[in-house]
Specification:
six-stranded antiparallel sheet; 20 strands; FAD-bd_PCMH-like_sf; globular; binds flavin-adenine dinucleotide; alpha+beta; Alpha-Beta Plaits; oxidoreductase; 27% helix
Length: 447
């Protein structure tokens, strides 16, 4: 299989590293890919940092391994190759009345990527993370064998892969449960939030009546407005609830995005003023939604603009996402939001939500509050994030590895104390570190 040399990065375009890319089109090709030294699998490159990057080493691009294998229309169980994306699954199965159970903020993720980061969506407090829709998968291991992993077969391998960053093998096929739907629309409500007290109370109040909830927070607001924003809530719409016009085509599909950011915007396009203006625009748009909204707008609003990541310029950006426990949540969030507002870094697109209990060994979620913030990469940011990491750790929290690009090994290990359990599984299945990546070397996730 030909090796193609090229620059690779995650969605944040930071860091960028030269890697050798292999593109298998069969299981045999994937096995061949293991012959040429350490490799890491890559899906659609939507993790933000160095998860699917392997400097001067090999990256196995799995997006051509995307065939559907079996479908049961009575149970909603789908078996397909792990390079299939949620976009491809939705395109085929939404018109039949079935939808992925767990959706992140973009539909351009592969099943392999969804497992490797054990992704979560707006309904984590009710549905949990991606592991909850996976029945089993097959995986190509370092010794070239292909095994099945499920809750009852190679269970250690199964659990270690959720949040395992592709470091245990190449996931080849996945058997997953889809959810039955009557329509592809959501009943939506939005609540203008005055401050953090109001935000936490509203989440508490509505989480029992709405499956989906997510808030946008103005991370530059301070004092009595700290924590202000807009909370968006929703439930899947039943057919009888839809207005007459939407009932004509209740299982309508998305169209591909028409807008695009064609090149990297210059760095000076982002400054305090543009952030403030954007915050006002977001607050206005979020606060005036329609009562019924299509899934593409509800789950994946950012997909409307192709390559929006280029808007942050060539230096790239980091999405900093942490979760902290509910206990003392208000006091800790106040401290963290003040640190961010005072940092001089420019927080964009700040997403806040509540999480339910977590599961996989290295899975990110646990019961608490999570905040995700996009920061353009600047020298100031690189000096600031270690202080923020220390604060998150002090408050019993941790960072989402699927978005991380900067965390150091010591802080990571303190944030994820079950890493030793994970390393025992790594040693069992990949003692020679056949699977490695820039993040595995940065965080010490090696046998
Ligand atoms: C706009 C946007 C919104 C997002 N919203 C959310 C959100 O709400 N919740 C959330 O949890 N995440 C979210 N994400 C992150 C995204 O869901 C994850 O990073 C996901 O893992 C990306 O999948 P991918 O196919 O692009 O994988 P990549 O980014 O290409 O790879 C991610 C990891 O998966 C591994 N991997 C990929 N394929 C395989 C395979 N076949 N076998 C083994 N390992 C494999 C890679 O080695 C790597 O470690 C968002 C990302 C974007 C850009």
């Amino acid at each position: 299989m030909p090796l193609k040399k090229g620059k690779l990065a995650g969605w944040g375009n930071y860091p960028v590293a030269e890697s050798y890319i292999l593109t298998p089109r069969s299981e045999n090709d994937s096995r061949d890919a293991l012959k040429d030294g350490p490799v890491i699998a890559r899906g659609l490159g939507r993790s933000y940092g160095d998860q699917a990057v392997n400097e001067n080493r090999n990256v196995v691009l799995c997006t051509h391994l995307n065939y559907f294998i079996a479908w049961d229309d009575t149970t909603g169980v789908l078996e397909c190759q792990a390079g299939a994306s949620l976009d491809e699954i939705i395109s085929v199965f939404a018109p039949k009345g079935w939808f992925p159970m767990i959706c992140p903020g973009t539909k351009f993720v592969t099943l392999g990527g969804a497992i490797a980061n054990d992704i979560h969506g707006k309904a984590h407090h009710t549905d949990g993370s991606f592991v909850n829709c996976v029945l089993s998968f097959t995986i190509l291991l370092a010794d070239g064998s292909i095994v099945t992993a499920s809750r009852t077969e190679n269970a250690d391998l199964f659990w270690a892969n959720f949040g395992g960053l592709g470091l245990l093998g190449i996931i080849l096929t996945v058997k997953m449960q889809l959810r039955k739907i009557e329509t592809t629309y959501f009943r939506q409500k939005s609540v203008r939030i005055k401050n953090l007290d109001h935000m936490l109370a509203a989440l508490e109040e509505y989480d029992h009546t709405y499956n989906y909830s997510v808030a946008w927070i103005d991370a530059l607001a301070k004092g009595s407005k700290l924590g202000s924003g807009v909370l968006t809530l929703g439930n899947g719409a039943a057919l009888h609830e839809l207005p007459e016009k939407l009932r004509q085509e209740p299982l309508k599909l998305h169209r591909s995005g028409k807008l695009s950011v064609p090149f990297f915007l210059p760095g000076f396009a982002l400054n305090g003023l543009t952030v403030r203006i954007l915050n006002k625009v977001i607050a206005f748009v979020q606060n005036s939604p329609k009562a019924f909204v299509h899934y593409d707008k509800f789950f994946f609003p950012l997909d409307a603009i192709n390559n929006w990541n280029k808007g942050y310029g060539k230096r790239g950006f980091v999405q900093y996402q942490f979760v902290i426990p509910e206990e003392n949540g208000k006091r800790h969030l106040t401290e963290i939001l003040n640190m961010i507002a005072d940092s001089g870094c420019m927080p964009f697109l700040n997403v806040f939500k509540k999480m339910g209990d977590g599961q996989g060994i290295l899975s990110f979620p646990f019961r608490g509050y999570t905040l995700a913030i996009d920061f353009p990469v600047t020298p100031q940011l690189l000096a600031f994030t270690p202080k923020l990491d220390a604060k998150v750790l002090e408050y019993g929290g941790r960072l989402y590895l699927g978005k991380d690009a900067l965390l150091d090994e010591k802080t990571f290990k303190a944030m994820y104390p079950r890493y030793t359990e994970w390393l025992a599984v790594k040693r069992k299945y990949d003692p020679q570190n056949k699977f490695s990546s820039d993040i595995s070397r940065r965080l010490g996730l090696e046998s």
